[in-house]
DNA sequence: TGATTTTCTTGATGCACCTCAAGTTTTTCA
DNA sequence: TGAAAAACTTGAGGTGCATCAAGAAAATCA
């Protein structure tokens, strides 16, 4: 699962990631040396709830899910992580085991950045610390948003919010027609939205029969964004 | 609402807070000078959703709620903040408005630590940056826990989890009898747990009639912690 | 390409929790 | 201390979404 280090390649990947973009080449090189490259086929479990972390992950390509399990064995997806995103930072700063499971949804390439490299970089580079702080803050906001959605929105509103959040449609306004591709299987998205696949299916077809979206496989067309945004509020 | 600065008093408060405990006296003094002391009577709105932050808050005494409102005007409490806790750090690191409202539940004394002081301290003191990172990470974990609870637990399980989390009863095991005091009105706690006051009331009395708790006003006695913990799973 | 597995849909039914409504108790404060 | 307000309880009825079940479509793979 873990390849041997290939600093030059790793370095190139790192220096394109937002976290490390403004860091000097020699420092990136040092960090790159502490990285582990992980080629994980679909279905690989990267860590389990309770495992002890010693770094964070950067997704080079592929996709994975962070989940937790209920006592009854039901699975709930907290987050879907795609190429370019990082995960596991928060737990790295606490002396605690992972609160979630991580499993790849597709064949993926990941970079594991060691805890010691991160701590060292924080010491040397103030702006790196600020970037980590900003990164955690963004994630925190995302979770606040989710808590709000679970508490106050109906399942349909959550679905619409999800569709609008794809491709940053939220900011885009007007009555333009947009097409997007569902980033994962419907069961996966349903779990992310805290609804069953059955309900997800019914709601999609509700929106279709109301003329708010068109669907063909994983491609969804929104003829009128504003109309969809207004629906269900 | 904002008193004039009283560096010496402020300094004393700061140096007792976990965030600043290990910081040298002269640096604490500098931070203290950038603080604003806020005496907020019950019901004071500290900031509204959409306000622009320029620092974070430390609760010296009192209690407040962080909430968001649905389109229909319904209020949901995300977090109850009590003496010794801080809030508003995450939003400070992003150039974004507050995603929530903050309102005092009781007469409170708060300290507002300015953004500039925090950023300066991060520059000067590496371990301060790590403390802020750890602080955000803890909050992130809390929210992950909440998302899990909203998604997978029943209302009763959330209530039991809340009772067990009071006074750190979770770690405490055995069949000891413990008494705790509800930290706020029942409607407030109910909202925090994402249930209606009516359901909250019914569930409390369910637990009472099952002999799992005894209640008298705001005092709740748990005769057998393990028994309560096992119930509803 | 056709067979097998996986994913998705559709229907019938159920239930956990909400809403509305009307007490009752506790707190607040003149 | 007593009256008004706020907080809490209890009941009846409704509903959004889950569950269970079984069939249709799509993806996978020999």
Task: Briefly characterize the structure.
The structure is a homodimer of 233-residue chains. Chain A is α+β, with helices and mostly antiparallel strands. Chain A has helices at residues 7-16, 25-33, 89-92, 115-124, 126-152, 155-165, 186-192, 197-209, 225-230; strands at 36-40, 45-47, 55-61, 63-69, 75-82, 86-87, 101-104, 108-114, 178-181, 214-216, 219-222.
The biggest chain-chain interface is: A-B, 42 and 42 residues
Number of helices of chain A: 9
Strand order of the largest sheet of chain A: 1-8-3-6
The H/E string of chain A reads: HHEEEEEEHEEHHHEHHEEH
Helix content class of chain A? 40-55%
Structural class of chain A: alpha+beta
Number of DSSP-assigned strands of chain A: 11
Share in β-strands of chain A? 15-25%
Q: End-to-end span of chain A in angstroms?
A: 47 Å
- Rg of chain A, please? 19 Å
Task: Give an overview of the whole structure.
The structure is a homodimer of 233-residue chains. By secondary structure, the first copy, chain A, is α+β, with helices and mostly antiparallel strands. The first copy, chain A, is 42% helix and 23% strand. Chain A has helices at 7-16, 25-33, 89-92, 115-124, 126-152, 155-165, 186-192, 197-209, 225-230, and strands spanning 36-40, 45-47, 55-61, 63-69, 75-82, 86-87, 101-104, 108-114, 178-181, 214-216, 219-222. In chain A, a hairpin with a 2-residue loop joins β10 and β11 (219-222). The longest helix of chain A is centred in the middle third of the chain and has 27 residues, at 126-152. At the A-B interface, α3, α4 and α5 of A face α3, α4 and α5 of B. Chain A binds a DNA duplex (30 and 30 nucleotides) through residues 154-155, 185-187, 195-202, 205, 217.
